Amino acid sequence: MVQGEVLSAEIRDLQCQKGVLPNSKLKNLGPFLDSYGVLRVGGRLGNSDLSYVAKYPAILPNKHKLTNQIIAYFHLKMFISVLPPFFTVGKCAKLYSENGKTFVGANLEIKGLLKLVKEPDEKLSGFLSAEGIEWKFIPPRAPSCGGLWEAAVKSAKYHLKIIVGRSNLTYEEFLTVSIQIEGILNSRPLCPLSSSADDLNALTPAHFLIGRSMNSIIEPNLTELSEGILKRWQRVARLMPLIWNKWHRGYLSELQQRNKWQFQKKNVKVGDLVVLIEDNMPTFKWPLGRVTKIYSGNDTLIRVVKVQTQNGEYKRAISQVCLLSMLV
């Protein structure tokens, strides 16, 4: 009855099978009338396992709520479609994000939508409550509070844009590249796994997700070949070494800048874990080693170090190693 009063023009147009007028607020929302004459929002969840009400929510004709609830529906769709795949590598108890209006609005609207839907799908409501996810926001206009993850996201987006560029990838191809980039980010060494001089392993983000470091399949390097002679799958495979080479060199450079003061003030010492800067390293491979001997210059600063790795002992200039400091 309320729909008939407030949205009478849209209902009349749909009954005449003309579709709503171009100036209607519902034009881009796929509105339709169900078998009971209720005006509902269309969408791309028609083949999902959600209940009918969750697939096609009824339009609430409150002028102040109409747009918000439509937006909430799509935020909800994003929420339930993104989180389950994310949990396949590890379930989180807390979800951190910036304090942008999009994220805050999604959080509020999802809660409001669940309250307004009288017959929510049991799977959906059960998922949100059983998972016990706490969504936390950093302070407004304080990106420095999310500095580490913001830097990682910025780096990934930058290299994805530079390397992938305008490549015409299918959804599956783009998903493959994105997952591989996720693996690259989660493979980066953060700090020594222990203080033992015999331990040549570093703590990585992957340890928090799967309990160990990341592995990858060694594939032929196609970067030197012309893209025009490659098959489609080879063109996609060619992107990963390009992204890896640029990203891991950038990360090592960042490590050097972050610890530059330590080399000058504290100097590196025997037993420290370092990452060796090597060219043409396979994806996910970070050559690690322990400093076994140091060589000082006339200014008493360390200029050369001897490093014990899994493949032997090598001398390297201090500019060719990155110090991994213990977290304190």
Automatic annotation (TrEMBL):
Which residue spans traverse the membrane? none
State the PANTHER family in the record: GAG-LIKE PROTEIN, PHD-TYPE DOMAIN-CONTAINING PROTEIN
Species for this entry: Araneus ventricosus
Q: Molecular function (GO) terms listed?
A: nucleic acid binding
Tell me which Gene3D superfamilies the record gives. Answer: Ribonuclease H-like superfamily/Ribonuclease H
The DUF5641 domain covers 231-324
Q: Which Pfam families match?
A: DUF5641 (PF18701)
The cross-references to InterPro entries, in alphabetical order and at most eight, read: DUF5641 (IPR040676), RNaseH-like_sf (IPR012337), RNaseH_sf (IPR036397)
- What name goes with this protein? DUF5641 domain-containing protein
